[in-house]
Amino acid sequence: CSDKFLELDDKQNLTENTFWTTRQHALQGITATYAALQGHDGSKWTFFEEVYITMAFKADDVDNNKNEPYGKNLAAFVNSPDESGPWNLWATCYAGIGRANQVIEKVPGITVMTEQERNEIVAEAKFLRAYNYFVLVNGFENVPLVLKFEKDLTKLQVAQAAAADVWTQIEKDLTEAEGVLPAAYPDTYKGRATKGAAKALLGKVYLFREKWALAEAKFMEIYGQYTLNANYIDNFNGTKENGPESVFEVQFSGDRAVSDERHPFNFEVRPYALDGWEIYYPSDWLVTTMKNDKTAGGGYSDRVYGSIFFNDPASKMWDLNIPATLVPYADVASKLSRPAFFNKYAYPNDRGGAYVGTNISVIRYADVLLMLAEAANENGKTVEATGFVNEVRNRSHAKPIAGLNKDQLREQIRNHERPVELAMEWGIRWFDLVRWGRGATAKQPVKALLTAHGKPSANNYVEDKHIRFPIPLKEINVNPLLKQNNLY
Amino acid sequence: APASWTLKGKVTDTNGKPIPGASVGVKNTSAGTLTGETGAFTLTVPENATLVISSIGFQTREIVLTSNKDLVVVLEENVKGLDEVLVIGYGTQKKGDVTAAISSVNTKNLSKQPSGNIGTMLQGQAAGVIVSAGTGNPAANPVVLVRGLNSINNSNPLYVVDGIPLGYAYDINPNDIESVSILKDASAATIYGARAAGGVIIITTKKGKTGEPRITFNSYVSLHRLNNNIDLLGKAPMNKVVKEAYANDGETPPIYVQDDSKYANSDWLGAFTKQGVEQKYDVDVAGASEKISYRLSLGHWEHSGSIINSGSKRDNVRLNTEIKLLNNRLKISPILAYTRFNNKNFGDVNGDGNAGFSPIMNVYNTLPHKRIYDAASVNGFAKPETELGSGNPVGERMLNNGSTIDDHLQFNIAADLKLWKGFSYNFTLGRNIVNTFDYTQTDPYDFGAQALVENPSRSESRGRNEFTVFTHLLNYEKQLGDHNFKAMYGFSREKSVSQGTSGAGNHLSSPLIESLSGLIIDGTGDFIRAGGWNFSSTLQSYFGRASYNYDDKYFLQASLRRDGSSRFGSLNRYGNFYSFSAGWNLHKENFFNIPWISELKPRVSYGTVGNQNVSNFQYLAKIFLAGSDPYLNYPFGSSLSQQVYVGAIAATLANNNIKWEQTATLNAGVNFGFLKGAITGSFDYFSSKTSDMLAETPIPTSSGITALPLTNIADMENKGWELTATYRPAPRAFNWDVTVNVSHSRNKIIRLGYDEGVIADGYVDFNNRGTTLTKKGEALASFYLYKTAGIFRSQAEVDAHVGKTGDPLQPNAKPGDLRFVDTNGDGALDDNDKQLMGNGLPNLDYGLTFNASYKNFDLMVFFNGKQGQKMYNGAKMFLYRFYRSADLLNAWSPSNPNGSVYRLSNADENENLRVSDYFLEDASFLRLRNLQIGYTLPQQLSSRMHLDRLRIYAGAYNLLTFTKYTGFDPDLSNTGIFSRGIDRGYYPLSRSFVFGLNVGF
Predict the structure, then answer these.
(1) CATH 1.25.40.890: which residues of chain A?
(2) Is B535 on the interface with A (CB under 8 A)?
(3) Which of A301, B221, B312, B363 could form a disulfide with B138 if both were Cys (CB 3.0 to 4.6 A apart)?
(4) What does the pLDDT look like over B502-515, one tens digit per residue?
(5) Interface contact flag, A253 B617, Cβ < 8 Å
(6) Range of the domain at B644
(7) Was domain A18-181+469-478 assigned CATH 1.25.40.890?
(8) Closest partner residue to B649 among A18, A29, A277, by Cβ?
(9) What is the pLDDT of residues B687-698, one digit of tens each?
(10) pLDDT band at B198 (very low <50, low <70, confident <90, very high)
(11) Can you give the pTM of this predicted structure?
């Protein structure tokens, strides 16, 4: 009998042979590469309850709810390599890298679109690849450097690269990207990586490498090209998404017509008494530090009210169920389990009760200004640096600072300006601690800092161990070429 | 026409005891009857007729009628049962001729099991067939394994129902089943080649026999109660435990535990469960005339479940007919069967990988402080006080309605044509159409922010699976003196097509509308979505079998099968499978002269079978297009509710080289009969090697791919033995028999993909805490855990727990914490200290069935058990973590220094909750599964009621379980291959009391 009977077509999927042929395919490919920013499996739970927690819980600005299992061992510095959070972070970054590699390899071959369009899409992929490696090399330090989409199942095991090689590749990708990326996108495509985003990330890379001059120069290239939102809270309530202060954001959306791109972060920071789940708390140290951020009149600055919900007549949190209603702290004070909560991202959607489509900021202009200030200060330009810090302070009506010397300003930036302005924002504080702990400039060992800042379980912190995440056990199990990080 | 006359007679056994229910028929006609309670019968017979008299357990007799006197027929006990015909692959064989390992299930014992599911009924009924409940949900199916786990890919047996090969048989009404044969070794199963690696279960449905139409009615009702053996803390003791846990950490406990007088103290479990009622009604009419036989049956089964808003219903209709043509040379047998399932959706979390806990655990987890009902709320259920968190599992269960309603249609026609000189031809066309329908409708509710449904929503999906098979068989049979030949050649083609449509939306304009047409878009958060699927697969096969025996003493058999499957690329499309077997009727030899041995038949077989249970198109590199799946989509734009763009990318890797998985099995066995057949049975030893097992293979995620590709990853071996024995003493007034079956099997991985590769699974805590490891040289899914050495009873004990360098091994430990062992002695407590600690498969699986009758009473007692299986009590770990287990009252504390539970601590800095043998338990058990007492009305009484037969019975199911396991049930095991033996807290089993009757008209 004929074998024709056994030859069937896949009616549900395109194959590699039929894909990567049209302009639409190129756009779908880069869209999928961005989608990995939300988590390797597209699940917003993976992003907020695994990846975000992994990045946030070790730092001194956040406390975890010890009654919840999420990231509990990470926060207590008793985690073993089988903890799911670091694996999800690892898989999320590599999903983005694998997709970026496909775009970088395949899009140049799509002849039915203009060369400029092709180049721009490839540059976006390089930006995203660099971003993911930035997270990996800071988080895990020793990671495989994969720059090609490997299809041969027998060649998927790759050994770890030297961290310096990963950093070099990040700089290379960002340098190539910044030359090609457009300065802006039309309204319908806002949120894609711009030239400014590439420069800001490259500047941050230089900062992490303590290449102070290059960092200052790179940040100066975008200085003045963004503006701070007049209201601090507009960075977190969805009203100014991809707006004037936004450099790069992870996009989420409340529009469910195509698929569900909402997230539950607002629930996770809110207190039980206001319908939240209390997963993230501001640490006592953060609350104390915030309370030092005063206006000229002696009140708290806007960014204090925008960041935390605390015992103050002017502190209010949005009611989740009744849009446009603000609940004063005093109304719920007796029902609260902790004295303070995050107010940042605790905003309701435009419809009550539902999850939100609020974007999560990765780099915003205030961060750029503070990084610029830090670089300039290290370059000896302390007065100019103070000016950049005051630009950020002024927006929140915090009293300008003045007269600090280089060391004082460094300390001010490290342990006041950055945590107060950028508290618990995505991937910022923990990586700051890592770089100051590792750096050659005014080294600040992490354990000492955590101890000084009253981090619970700081005594469990082992200096050359917990500065890195463990290489996930799941990954080592299938890739014997990987070496576990020190002391895990 | 020959003159006919009325014959009266009686059938008895050799002791003169009447045999009721014996079949008395006229040879070569359809005329016939059954004997009554006194063994008497009346039958109109033609002149010179030959009577055929048969009854189960007795040798069939043929009597040529030479006079018209009343007849007394004495039947001899069927001591050997070797003339009994066994259904095998594509044919039948006399039991005495069998050289393979085949179990035939005693359907009489099956019929006494009060269950609607043939899988459940098989538990403990045949050696080597291991059945686990998996869940107590009546809508779910048990896991049936033949000879243990013999592949990491898929170990489910193939079911062949009336010649149609399928992956399941749960649509069959057990009351329609005539026989069940289980093909265990390769020599029996090779004939099903590609799909036989997990064994083959052949089910044949009942046909009409002889005589006038007879009506049978069977029914039972049983009342179920959950086997709930978990003690939960009430509100006040829970408050005490939580306060202690927080106090030990120096932290403030949650507000709600601080005042015992506040809040409710609800019995959530009581509200979530109910008394279940199971009912089954079967009626059939069967009969036969000279040229046609028929059986029409109707069945209804339903089980309300022991959990609110759960349950299952099934309706069956079946018409089996047989038409004889051309002087009986041509036999046409059409079968029509229809099954309707209606299962309420429940959603147990079972299987491998990242999984959470069963919905039942939500109930155990819910704070007793929450109120269940609130008459003032719209739907009658209470919204919890905000400080207690969201959720009302009882309300959510009741307001979330969904069912799966499937129609199974089987159409089967077989034609047998006797050709000439021993040749015959058989053609079978089978069609199985399954139309599936699934819906979920949720009413709006507000049980707090995390449990808020703003609008009524609805989703539906409909699918159609069409399976077509046709088979041509050419048979040859020849006898030359003492030489007997039999041969068969066959060709078959199968095609399966699955297509479907789904739709969903999150805003119905009114909860009273139960149709997708009521969906509206009334804001950016609303959606209406469509989906669908469309895939097919084909299989083309050539197969043959030849058997030979000399003088019924020496038996040889060989089989061959060549399968081509669309699931493999052109490189490896075909797989060849073969087997040989031989047997020797030693007891028939002249030199064999041991009087107490009536049968002794050694036999041996070797052969291969395959496994093609992989999904389609794995050899193609596919591009995944997200559609409505958020996986690859991403929004761009400038508003809060940006437009979402569709993404697409290669998200899986192709594997061009995947090929057939093969299992080669050596089987050596012996059939025996002792003491004139009072003891009969068989013993089998087997050793199998499965090569190139196909399974989803974990790959480094640094490849950018998280979907696992299929590869021929591994080899494993399986060894074991099975024993079945029946003791049936010579019949007396008190008549009894007992059957025991025992089996043992052990598997071992002998190759696993990459050199040091392992597969970790058995997650008990979402993505976290893998408990099993599969690696070379070890059994599949072995538990891989930290070893504990009790609880630190004092600070001195903590201080003494140091590694080789004198550094503390558990620097965060305090008195009361668990002591973990540095098993490799390297001075550090880490992942390398985990040890392999057995697995979730039993060492011994056994069943014992005892049947007895005295006068009009009959009794059946059925025990089954599993010995040497372990279970990771993840449910207990969960109940400890959420402070719900009553065990916690005995936690260690300075005032309770001998407490059996570790110190209460919310921060758990010692990681007492890490995966360890503290939560690993012996899950061996012995269960009194079925106890039934029946009473058959004396015939005078039933005749007066115009009945042929009336039997009533009462019994209990799952009445007693002897086990040390402290979880829900030692037999509720995870069904995942890599997660077997992980208890995530499933829908518990129930204990039931049964009342039923059997009526014949």
Answers:
(1) 18-181+469-478
(2) yes
(3) B312
(4) 999 999 999 999 99
(5) no
(6) 622-653
(7) yes
(8) A29
(9) 999 998 877 778
(10) confident
(11) 0.82
